[in-house]
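Purpose: get a first structural picture of the assembly so the mutagenesis plan has something to point at.
Setup: two entries, given in the order below. No constraints added.
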Amino acid sequence: NAGVMQNPRHLVRRRGQEARLRCSPMKGHSHVYWYRQLPEEGLKFMVYLQKENIIDESGMPKERFSAEFPKEGPSILRIQQVVRGDSAAYFCASSLSRGPYEQYFGPGTRLTVT
Amino acid sequence: RKEVEQDPGPFNVPEGATVAFNCTYSNSASQSFFWYRQDCRKEPKLLMSVYSSGNEDGRFTAQLNRASQYISLLIRDSKLSDSATYLCVVNIGSNTGKLIFGQGTTLQVKP
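Result (structure tokens, whole complex):
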């Protein structure tokens, strides 16, 4: 029973480049969440998606960040024109349904901006 | 005030000790509560959900006090492998999947 999968596990980008992070939820899960963990800080919610819909993007920075979860394929978190402050661990989680259901996390993508 | 507050520790305890972590949350509308465990630079792993009636899973016991907006985790007979950061996590409501994480409490179990 495969868990949440994320790739790449490590990503290095120069300032100004684009970063694309992918997440495949657990089998049977249709709800995906993205969280960011800055160095020495706690996890912060970014966005919640269901297939083809953004349900809650209240934690997404207003510019440069976008997320999608298409009908087919993984969820994508896209960061345009990366800056050093974007360096962080980005974790994806999935759940069976919305609300109180437990969320299970993937191994994360560690983004380093040089 | 932080939405979820935890004592960051570290808690340094010998093997076999009993240790308790506490957590408070500010939003009285919070509906679901969890403890996650995070090992250094790895993903959070669900340890247990926390129910109003309290729940136990082996050496781990979680309690919820809604009136005081307080959650606890008790670990009995600590093992070296329990060394990790324990995250108190709250979900505000049934229509949002947003989890709010505390900063975590670090536990170091020594031989």
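The first strand of chain A starts at residue 5 and ends at 7.
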